[in-house]
Design brief:
Elements lengths: L3 H20 L2 E6 L1 H9 L2 E6 L10 H14 L5 H17 L3 E6 L5 H7 L6 E6 H9 L3 E5 L10 H12 L8 H13 L11 E6 L9 E5 L3 E8 H7 L8 E6 L7 H10 L3 H4 L2 E3 L6
Parallel strand pairs: 9-10
Antiparallel strand pairs: 1-4, 2-3, 2-8, 3-6, 4-9, 5-6, 7-8
Helix pairs in contact: 1-6, 3-7
Length: 286
């Protein structure tokens, strides 16, 4: 009889194959040379606070629309309790703001180069979807698709909140904190429709508080909080070769990076197999 670990691994492998079928063999992460150096030399992923992302309505847009839908469903009754519930949601959001590592199904995309890779002068790390999914699966991280809609009126959470506010019912949840947990996770995967061309896949931890030991800072033009995912530790734990996680490193269309220098750098930091995975972008951005 298979032991529990074997059963879990098979479940993970099936989920990984399904994820690849749905989202493709590769996921692109557009970035700059400094961030790439951190990924490769430290073998880390730096998950940024979603408070700093370029969607000014990140998270709050979905919650604002949900609040509006709930109030409409209640015909503006139960105002005091509605305000209390959404005050709790706001407090949780401020105390446990989500962190994310953003990937894209948009391959060699001009808008992605311009927006996220130093105006086309940076690089893109092309991750192997299956390997990445397997690393995430057992390590308290979520990987999933972003949805580009704030249509909260039709969302299941609207009905659940209405039922709680009106009737004190919590179907499927032991308490209001559990419902808010679910709500915050849902808010995290909804963005404004104007960002839909990004085709984003996001990796996130569950809930992060300010005293989390995995929080650190990085300095770019400003100080930024980041949540550190230790890829070296996870790769060792899952018996995965770090270099197999990356299918390619693509040099941006406006970069002046010398390919031979780049290959030398990769061999210098002990990643010789990645030196054979470098290629220039074919995007005609200028």
């Amino acid at each position: 009889m298979a032991d529990l670990r074997e059963i879990d691994v098979e479940r993970r492998n099936r989920a990984a194959r399904k994820f690849v079928e749905q989202y493709g063999n590769q996921l692109w992460h557009y970035t700059d040379a400094q961030a790439l150096n951190g990924i490769l030399t430290k073998k880390e992923l730096w998950l940024g606070s979603t408070a700093n992302m370029n969607d000014s309505k990140e998270l709050v847009g979905f919650i604002e629309n949900l609040k509006k839908a709930v109030k409409e469903a209640l015909n503006n009754q139960y105002e005091e309790k509605t305000a209390k519930v959404f005050s709790e949601i706001d407090s949780r959001l401020k105390a446990e703001y989500p962190y994310a590592f953003c990937l894209s199904r948009a391959e060699d995309d001009a808008a992605q180069w311009e927006r996220y890779a130093n105006a086309g002068k940076g690089v893109a790390v092309v991750f192997n979807t299956e390997v990445l999914f397997k690393l995430v699966y057992f390590n308290r991280l979520i990987i999933g698709e972003e949805y580009y809609t704030y249509n909260a009126k039709q969302h299941q959470l609207c009905g659940l909140l209405v039922d709680y506010i009106k009737n004190d019912k919590l179907e499927g949840f032991s308490d209001i904190d559990g419902l808010i947990d679910n709500l915050l996770l849902c808010a995290q995967i909804h963005k404004h429709k104007s960002f839909s061309a990004e085709k984003e896949i996001r990796i996130s931890p569950y809930f992060v508080k300010d005293d989390d030991p995995k929080l650190d800072y990085r300095i770019t033009d400003v100080f930024k909080r980041v949540y550190i995912v230790d890829l070296a530790e996870i790769c060792k734990k899952e018996n995965v070769d770090f270099e197999s996680l990356i299918d390619a490193i693509v040099i941006g269309p406006k970069s002046r990076q010398n390919i031979e220098d780049f290959k030398w750098y990769l061999r210098k930091i002990g990643l010789p197999n990645l030196a054979d995975k470098i290629c220039p972008s074919e995007c005609p951005l200028r």
